[in-house]
Design brief:
The protein has 11 helices and 15 strands. It has 330 residues and is of the alpha+beta class. The structure holds pyridoxal-5'-phosphate. The site of pyridoxal-5'-phosphate has 12 residues, from helix 8.
Length: 330
């Protein structure tokens, strides 16, 4: 922080140079950023900024979604756009253009990034112009796209499995859980609490004692009778990965690895007694949980369904029919 005696009044050039110094102190791997407010794309992370009075920043009036970039193709973008549009409607956010225009900006920003693998996250805000609650008069909705290297998790999660704890934080009310808004305070606190207690992540339980979801992932199980069970999507985010895996898992029923697939309420006691417990999401893909609080899950080792589902998902991400090729220039 600047000293208390004099605070400089900065020129625009000084602001840019301080933003660059900030990035030099703390390097990031953001490859390209589109901003409707800048009316274009920047590749210098120092310039990936948003006005402080944008309501996304000071009121959390914004939504987002993230799609994976795999081998130069965007995976399952339509499902992520469906959810983005639903979240916008539930949040009373106006779109800056049509679905086709939004898709086009996402694809073009990805092309400029040059990245073949990573993540594409995009946000919609109610825009700048006041410090009120509701959108400012004349505010244009803001649309932002960031292409970055993606979140990564320890290899151990996949080879040995991970440990989760029941969070002490209350689950979001259903409307806020099914809307992918930028208000992730409960999710952040849950993850921090779990790490502080020596676990890898947390699990929300709903008011009726059913299994909810994890910080940025869904939770699913394989029962003793080898049924793949997933919570309903009434109280948790409808994960695009979960929805896709519920389809892909049918192949495991055909192979005899599973006996059925069910989407229903899952009491905590049933989850703890499961043969396998899984975390599912665009960034984690499929990760086996081997301990929940003090309860060892199954035989305490990653199970066959977790491995098989991960293989099916990775295959779908590389060569399925839900891929959009990115028109790179080189
Ligand atoms: C709270 C929450 N639940 C579940 C998920 C999994 O969703 P997806 O599979 O679309 O990544 C996410 C990630 O977006 C999330 O933030």
């Amino acid at each position: 922080m600047a000293g208390s005696s004099t605070l400089p009044i900065l020129t625009a050039d000084e602001v840019v140079s301080h933003l660059r110094a900030l990035r030099a102190r703390q390097p990031v791997t953001y490859r390209a950023f589109y901003s409707s407010q800048l009316r274009g794309i920047v590749t210098d992370p120092a310039l990936m900024v948003i006005p402080f009075d944008d309501h996304l920043v000071h009121r959390g009036h914004g939504i987002f979604d993230t799609a994976a970039l795999v081998g130069g193709k965007i995976y399952d973008l339509e499902a992520h756009l469906d959810r983005f549009l639903l979240s916008a409607e539930r949040s009373k956010l106006r779109l800056p253009g049509s679905r086709g225009e939004i898709r086009d900006i996402i694809i073009k920003t990805t092309a400029v990034s040059g990245r073949r693998d990573g993540s594409i996250r995009y946000w919609l805000s109610s825009g700048p112009g006041s410090l009120e609650l509701g959108p400012a008069a004349g505010a244009e909705p803001g649309f932002f796209v960031m292409v970055f290297d993606g979140l990564s998790y320890p290899e151990r999660w996949y080879t040995e499995g991970l440990k989760v704890m029941t969070t002490t934080y209350p689950i979001k009310a259903p409307l806020y859980a099914i809307t992918k808004a930028t208000n992730y305070l409960p999710n952040v606190l849950m993850q921090m609490e779990a790490k502080e207690a020596g676990f890898d992540n947390g699990v929300f339980i709903d008011a009726d004692g059913y299994v909810g979801e994890s910080s940025n992932m869904n939770v699913a199980f394989v029962t003793g009778g080898r049924v793949f069970v997933h919570p309903t999507f009434d109280n948790v985010l409808a994960g695009c990965t979960s929805l896709r895996l519920l389809e892909l898992a049918r192949a495991l029923v055909d192979q005899g690895l599973l006996t059925g697939i069910e989407v229903r309420d899952i009491p905590v006691a049933e989850g703890r007694a499961a043969r396998e417990m899984l975390l599912l999401g665009s960034s984690v893909k499929v990760a086996p949980v081997v301990q929940w609080d003090s309860q060892v899950i199954g035989d305490g080792r990653p199970g066959p369904v977790a491995k098989a589902l991960l293989r099916l998902l990775e295959e779908d991400m590389r060569s399925g029919d839900r891929l959009i090729p990115v028109p790179y220039q080189d």
